[in-house]
Protein backbone atom coordinates (compact mmCIF):
# COMPACT_ATOMS: atom_id res chain seq x y z
CA UNK A 1 0.00 0.00 0.00
CA UNK A 2 1.30 3.42 -0.93
CA UNK A 3 2.48 5.67 1.89
CA UNK A 4 0.74 9.05 1.84
CA UNK A 5 1.93 12.25 3.42
CA UNK A 6 -0.10 14.06 6.06
CA UNK A 7 -0.20 17.76 5.33
CA UNK A 8 -2.61 20.66 5.10
CA UNK A 9 -2.81 23.50 2.65
CA UNK A 10 -5.01 26.58 2.50
CA UNK A 11 -7.11 26.95 -0.64
CA UNK A 12 -9.80 29.41 -1.75
CA UNK A 13 -13.30 28.94 -3.06
CA UNK A 14 -13.66 30.19 -6.66
CA UNK A 15 -16.45 32.29 -8.19
CA UNK A 16 -18.52 29.25 -9.16
CA UNK A 17 -18.05 27.47 -5.83
CA UNK A 18 -15.16 25.39 -7.13
CA UNK A 19 -11.98 24.44 -5.31
CA UNK A 20 -8.70 23.24 -6.75
CA UNK A 21 -6.98 20.30 -5.12
CA UNK A 22 -3.27 21.17 -5.04
CA UNK A 23 -1.21 19.58 -7.80
CA UNK A 24 1.11 17.69 -5.42
CA UNK A 25 -1.93 15.97 -3.87
CA UNK A 26 -3.44 15.12 -7.27
CA UNK A 27 -0.12 13.63 -8.36
CA UNK A 28 0.52 11.74 -5.11
CA UNK A 29 -2.96 10.17 -5.16
CA UNK A 30 -3.23 9.74 -8.93
CA UNK A 31 -6.32 11.95 -9.15
CA UNK A 32 -7.63 12.73 -12.59
CA UNK A 33 -10.47 14.64 -14.22
CA UNK A 34 -13.94 13.19 -13.50
CA UNK A 35 -12.85 11.31 -10.35
CA UNK A 36 -15.75 11.22 -7.88
CA UNK A 37 -15.71 12.62 -4.35
CA UNK A 38 -18.09 12.72 -1.42
CA UNK A 39 -18.52 16.01 0.47
CA UNK A 40 -19.47 15.69 4.14
CA UNK A 41 -20.67 18.77 6.02
CA UNK A 42 -20.07 18.34 9.73
CA UNK A 43 -22.20 19.97 12.47
CA UNK A 44 -19.08 21.94 13.46
CA UNK A 45 -19.03 23.55 10.00
CA UNK A 46 -16.00 21.53 8.88
CA UNK A 47 -16.13 20.08 5.39
CA UNK A 48 -14.56 16.71 4.59
CA UNK A 49 -13.76 15.73 1.01
CA UNK A 50 -13.43 11.96 0.53
CA UNK A 51 -12.45 10.14 -2.63
CA UNK A 52 -15.11 7.73 -3.88
CA UNK A 53 -14.08 4.58 -5.65
CA UNK A 54 -15.59 4.13 -9.08
CA UNK A 55 -18.54 1.79 -8.85
CA UNK A 56 -20.32 -0.23 -11.48
CA UNK A 57 -24.06 0.44 -11.92
CA UNK A 58 -24.73 -2.82 -10.07
CA UNK A 59 -22.58 -1.75 -7.12
CA UNK A 60 -24.35 1.62 -6.99
CA UNK A 61 -27.75 -0.14 -6.98
CA UNK A 62 -26.72 -2.56 -4.21
CA UNK A 63 -25.31 0.35 -2.21
CA UNK A 64 -28.60 2.27 -2.57
CA UNK A 65 -30.65 -0.79 -1.59
CA UNK A 66 -28.48 -1.39 1.47
CA UNK A 67 -29.21 2.15 2.66
CA UNK A 68 -32.99 1.81 2.20
CA UNK A 69 -35.09 1.57 5.35
CA UNK A 70 -36.10 -1.92 6.44
CA UNK A 71 -39.30 -3.19 4.85
CA UNK A 72 -41.78 -5.61 6.42
CA UNK A 73 -43.49 -7.24 3.42
CA UNK A 74 -46.06 -9.06 5.59
CA UNK A 75 -47.16 -5.85 7.30
CA UNK A 76 -47.34 -4.05 3.95
CA UNK A 77 -49.47 -6.83 2.46
CA UNK A 78 -51.84 -6.73 5.45
CA UNK A 79 -52.20 -3.00 4.93
CA UNK A 80 -53.08 -3.55 1.25
CA UNK A 81 -55.69 -6.16 2.21
CA UNK A 82 -57.23 -3.83 4.80
CA UNK A 83 -57.38 -0.96 2.29
CA UNK A 84 -59.09 -3.22 -0.26
CA UNK A 85 -61.70 -4.23 2.33
CA UNK A 86 -62.47 -0.55 2.93
CA UNK A 87 -62.91 0.10 -0.80
CA UNK A 88 -65.50 -2.68 -1.22
In short:
Helix content is 38%, strand content 11%. It has 88 residues and is an alpha+beta fold. It has one domain (23-87).
Question: Secondary-structure blueprint of this entry?
Answer:
Blueprint: H1 23-29, E1 37-41, E2 47-51, H2 57-67, H3 73-87
Antiparallel strand pairs: 1-2
Describe the structure.
This protein is α+β, with helices and mostly antiparallel strands. It has one domain (23-87). It has helices at residues 23-29, 57-67, 73-87, and strands at 37-41, 47-51. A two-stranded antiparallel ribbon has the order 1-2. The protein is elongated. The N and C termini lie far apart (66 Å).
Helix/strand order, N-terminal first: HEEHH
Write down the overall mean pLDDT: 87
**Total individual domains:** 1
Uncertain residue segments: none
Which oligomeric state applies?
single chain
- Radius of gyration (Å): 22 Å
Structural class: alpha+beta
Say how many strands there are.
2
Q: Helical residue percent?
A: 25-40%
Through-space gap between termini? 66 Å
Strand content: 5-15%
Strand order of the largest sheet: 1-2
Shape: elongated
Largest sheet: 2 strands, antiparallel
Total of helices: 3
Amino acid sequence: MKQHTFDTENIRLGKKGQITIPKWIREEDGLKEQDAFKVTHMPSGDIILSRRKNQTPEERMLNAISKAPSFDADAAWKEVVEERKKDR
